[in-house]
Design a protein that fits this description.
Elements (H helix, E strand, L loop, with lengths): L8 E2 L13 E4 L20 E6 L12 E6 L11 E3 L19 E4 L15 E9 L4 E10 L6 E5 L3 E8 L2 E5 L2 E5 L3 E5 L5 E5 L4 E8 L23 E2 L12 E7 L2 E7 L6 E6 L4 E4 L20 E9 L2 E14 L16 E8 L14 E4 L9 H9 L5 E13 L4 E2 L1 H6 L22
Parallel strand pairs: 9-17
Antiparallel strand pairs: 1-2, 2-19, 3-4, 4-19, 5-18, 6-24, 7-8, 7-26, 8-15, 10-13, 10-15, 11-12, 11-14, 13-20, 16-20, 17-18, 21-22, 22-25, 23-24, 23-25
Amino acid sequence: MNKLSSNGRLWLMPGYMPGFGNDFETEALQGALPRGQNSPQKCPYGLYAEQLSGTPFTAPPGKNERTWCYRIRPSVRHTGSFTKVDYPYWKTAPSIIDDVISLGQYRWDPVLDDGSHKTFVSGMRTMTTAGDVNIHTGMAAHIYLITESMHNDYFYSADSELLVIPQQGRLRFETELGVMVVGVGELAILPRGLVFRVVLEDGPARGFVCENYGAQFTLPNRGPIGANCLANPRDFKTPIAAFCDEESPSRLTVKWCGAFHQCEIGHSPLDVVAWHGNYAPCKYDLTKFAPVGALLFDHPDPSIFTVLTSPSGVEGTANVDLILFRDRWSVAENTFRPPWYHKNIMSELMGNIYGVYDAKPEGFAPGGMSLHNMMLPHGPDRDAFEAARQAELKPSKLQNTMSFMFETRFPQHLTEFAAHEAPLQDDYVDCWKSLDKKFNGKP
């Protein structure tokens, strides 16, 4: 495997959050960063200056995302004649199948490994799609199953930003801008257009991916919460510069408008020796998320658990939100504490990273997923409802639990895989059948 070189030279602290205008600079060789201008006539070490832009050039300050890369070869040398390839389990919106009914409440057990050889790309299994990749709106929800590393194999998505949540096994993301190792209880964000490969750190791995076609993920507005709690920018970490200067047969796969294209190249494309800017990958430790909640009575909306949001252009209505349910205290008096029954304009796909989810103590296994599409009623099963209704309301702590939700303004359409191959729980809706009538006509 190619080795990436870095002397760990970082000029600014690595706390980072996309969309906030932070600007960082890092170099793997001392003096590789040009000083004072972005594109000098002659770059140090004979490097090429190249800009990677995640927004239009004219985006306003604070929203303008770009990084200057100083690399051994320009990216035009990292591509060749493309041929189309097929990854049949990775689907892209719009993907609506006539004989698949997406209207319903669905839940899946963890998808089992079929024993085949799978990398991060070939092991992707799409569960739902929403919106339209061609107009940069919506998302797709995937699970990944990985049994082997990408060696001289590289990938980037021109369609989307990838938010990766491991559920089993650590992943080493070797990117153009440096290396991140991400494990269970963490997430990684890989920007649109960034070249990377994924290496297994400790055996087979599985997890979840939100493929975001829309605006980049950023921190939500905290409103009356103020400047603190929820996720803090300082806890998002970017890699330091690292590069590979090795000539060996390699392959680059590009996802573009839902199709996959490959070309052969004679060297590693991970050859950025130094970079500065604010368009970069990052990782975040989900255990650093600081929940907020009710201190006296009543049950707040789940939006108080928003970690990241991809804005839609309509204030308060997200293209997609990442919401996290982790360890926290429940102290509210005279209040039904689990999630209440509701119908929602947003579509909610949930995944269990580990532990027990309080609204579904049975059946929602780690590695499993559920989908409650827009305007479909859902809520606690009977056992969770009865336990919460009759519980002594003293302070209690939910512990060793971590689940997430991908919530989008668009309906999420099931793929063929989700409807017919993934381990769908056919009896999921039965968890509400025993909710009996309690009305007696008395106050």
